[in-house]
């Protein structure tokens, strides 16, 4: 319902948005009234280079034209029904997640090295392109790689295993290497324009934490790091909500925090979504190619674990 409105209404339909202001907003990455509604006054003013009073008026007017006010429970239900799901390739893992990776939210996969975080990202980048009847969203992927572990060969193999045209599948994955946390944040800012213009249904950041950890080492930088990371994660949640897309991030945690004495978040060994709404999935290694997934504090999902395997074809259920 809200999406329909968003498609019809343009920035210039917001009272007070002159062509000049519209240009400034667009240049700052705000291209729809919804992007205005969910932004803060100071943020909008600063990024678009307009006075705070103007920013405030524009936000209020955008709320009015989009009818952002109380909703009925029925409307809440309808919005919930607009959430869609992407299959992971493993029925077990899909079941654990209530049907697959959800849109309108952020999903974090965290675990030690080699637990399959990057493999799941590759698989989802392919699977989102499947038609809905096969568990996809017939959409494209943005893949933000911070560690240089993206492999087109894996995409090719996974696409082929699903009977898809590998070249077409690779054409539908927009890849960008992020070189530091500022770069990573600015790529996400650009996505508010890029995602709706390119039928992107999935945004991946593998890994979301590595630059922040490297740039803010030690306990003395922990507060600033967490603050910046939280702002970044909130931006991603917004992106997911506004455009009804899935956002998937990974986060490596260490099994033996004592070895990594310099990093207090490693000592916690946990997920980064603590202050952000979303789904957290812990991955552990099991025998051979088997991996175990567990959903952590998600009241709407059943408790339990799922076993999946990493094969040459990609993420699958174990055979027996
Ligand atoms: P870090 O990024 O180091 O934290 O690890 P990760 O959690 O991202 O692990 P990743 O997804 O890279 O998983 C690596 C594992 O996937 C390897 O140990 C292999 O077992 C498996 N794997 C990767 N590529 C292939 C492949 O082509 N065929 C098969 N059968 N397994 C693969
Ligand atoms: Mg990885």
Question: Could you characterize what this model shows?
Answer:
The strands form 2 sheets. A 9-stranded mixed sheet has the order 5-4-6-7-3-8-9-10-11, sandwiched between helices. It has a two-stranded antiparallel sheet with strand order 1-2. The chain folds into 2 domains: 64 residues, DNA polymerase, domain 1 (Orthogonal Bundle), CATH 1.10.150; 234 residues, Rossmann fold. It has 320 residues and is an alpha/beta fold. It is globular. The chain contains 14 helices and 11 strands. The longest helix is centred in the C-terminal third of the chain and has 22 residues. Magnesium ion (MG) binds next to helix 8.
Keywords:
binds guanosine-5'-triphosphate, nine-stranded mixed β-sheet, Rossmann fold, 14 helices, 11 strands, DNA polymerase, domain 1, disordered N terminus, globular, 42% helix, two-stranded antiparallel sheet, alpha/beta, 320 residues, binds magnesium ion
What is the secondary structure topology, with strand pairs?
Layout: H1 2-8, H2 19-27, H3 33-37, H4 41-48, H5 52-66, H6 73-81, E1 85-86, H7 91-96, E2 101-102, E3 105-111, H8 117-127, E4 140-145, H9 152-161, H10 166-171, E5 173-177, H11 181-197, E6 200-206, H12 210-215, H13 222-243, E7 246-252, H14 264-268, E8 279-285, E9 290-296, E10 305-311, E11 314-316
Parallel strand pairs: 3-7, 3-8, 4-5, 4-6, 6-7
Antiparallel strand pairs: 1-2, 8-9, 9-10, 10-11
Bound molecules: guanosine-5'-triphosphate and magnesium ion.
């Amino acid at each position: 319902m809200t999406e329909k409105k968003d498609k019809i209404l343009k920035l210039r339909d917001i009272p007070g948005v002159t062509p000049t202001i519209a240009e400034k907003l667009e240049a700052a990455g705000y291209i729809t009234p919804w992007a205005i509604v969910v932004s803060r006054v100071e943020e909008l003013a600063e990024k678009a280079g307009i006075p705070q009073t103007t920013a405030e008026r524009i936000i209020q007017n955008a709320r009015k034209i989009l009818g952002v006010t109380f909703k009925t429970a029925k409307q809440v239900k309808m919005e919930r029904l607009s959430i869609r799901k992407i299959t992971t390739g493993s029925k077990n893992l899909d079941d654990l997640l209530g049907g697959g990776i959800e849109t309108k939210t952020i999903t974090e996969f965290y675990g030690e090295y080699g637990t399959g975080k990057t493999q799941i990202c590759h698989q989802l980048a392919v699977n989102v392109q499947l038609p809905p009847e096969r568990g996809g969203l017939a959409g494209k992927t943005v893949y933000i790689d911070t560690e240089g572990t993206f492999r087109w060969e894996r995409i090719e193999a996974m696409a082929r295993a699903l009977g898809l045209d590998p070249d077409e599948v690779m054409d539908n994955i927009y890849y960008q290497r992020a070189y530091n946390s500022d770069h990573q944040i600015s790529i996400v800012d650009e996505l508010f324009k890029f995602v709706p213009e390119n039928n992107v249904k999935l945004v991946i950041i593998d890994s979301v934490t590595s630059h922040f950890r490297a740039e803010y080492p030690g306990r003395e930088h922990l507060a600033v790091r967490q603050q910046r990371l939280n702002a970044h994660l909130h931006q991603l949640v917004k992106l997911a909500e506004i455009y009804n897309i899935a956002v998937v991030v990974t986060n490596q945690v260490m099994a033996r925090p004592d070895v990594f004495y310099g990093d207090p978040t490693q000592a916690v060994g946990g997920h980064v979504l603590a202050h952000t709404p979303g789904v957290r999935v812990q991955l552990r290694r099991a025998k051979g190619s088997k991996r175990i997934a567990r959903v952590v504090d998600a009241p709407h999902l059943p408790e339990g674990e799922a076993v999946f395997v990493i094969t040459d074809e990609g993420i699958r259920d174990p055979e027996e």
